[in-house]
Amino acid sequence: MMGLQEFLADNYRIELSAFRTVLDGIPAESFATARLGHSPAWHALHIADWLRLTVLGDKTPNYHYLGWEDAVWVTGLGTEPAPLNEDATKTDILARLDTVSAQAVAYLQNASDADMEGMTFSPSAPNGERPRLAAVGLHLRHVAYHRGQVVLGQKA
């Protein structure tokens, strides 16, 4: 029987691969062009930032693509420069996404039961936190949502 951590890692691997496939199909010359609000580059950096925050629990204060940059809770998370900006090359942005994705999948694969228990930071929750497992599940759907946004943007 597949354990919880293997199940989560496998589902993240599948969804992140599907997201990456959609991004691969965007021509490099239009990767930073905003359509329907954001560019494919922004979506890639956004998912990388949320993987770091939600799955890895990384509190390094260099977040700039969470999508809530005007919110009070983001202020302390974005005091340092972003690892990459939206105008970086497609190759560099996808490499960043690949690196963070691999870290997240590895973390989930090797997480202990204790790692999956308890509460975690979740700004969209009424009290600012939610059960860790629920947060990881919500984030998986968040990746799928942004995959769809990139697809819709290419049709605009």
Looking at CATH, the homologous superfamily is dinb family like domain
Q: Count of DSSP E strands?
A: 2
Question: SSE order, as H and E?
Answer: HHHHHEEH
What is the CA-based Rg, rounded? 15 Å
Number of domains: 1
| N-end to C-end Cα span | 44 Å
Q: What is the overall silhouette?
A: globular
Helix count from the secondary structure assignment:
6
Low-confidence stretches: none
Strand content: under 5%
Q: Provide mean pLDDT, rounded.
A: 94
Q: Biggest sheet, strands in spatial order?
A: 1-2
Q: What fold name goes in the CATH topology slot?
A: Four Helix Bundle (Hemerythrin (Met), subunit A)
Organism: Deinococcus marmoris
Domain DinB-like: 17-150
Pfam family, one: DinB_2
Protein name: DinB-like domain-containing protein
Question: Would you kindly provide a written description of the structure presented here, covering whatever features stand out?
Answer:
By secondary structure, this protein is mainly alpha-helical. It has a single domain, classed as Up-down Bundle (Four Helix Bundle (Hemerythrin (Met), subunit A)). The chain has helices at residues 4-24, 40-55, 72-75, 90-110, 113-116, 132-155, and strands spanning 119-121, 129-131. It has a two-stranded antiparallel sheet. A hairpin with a 7-residue loop joins strand 1 and strand 2 (129-131). The longest helix is centred in the C-terminal third of the chain and has 24 residues, at 132-155.
SSE layout and pairing:
Elements: H1 4-24, H2 40-55, H3 72-75, H4 90-110, H5 113-116, E1 119-121, E2 129-131, H6 132-155
Antiparallel strand pairs: 1-2
Helix pairs in contact: 1-4, 1-6, 2-4, 2-6
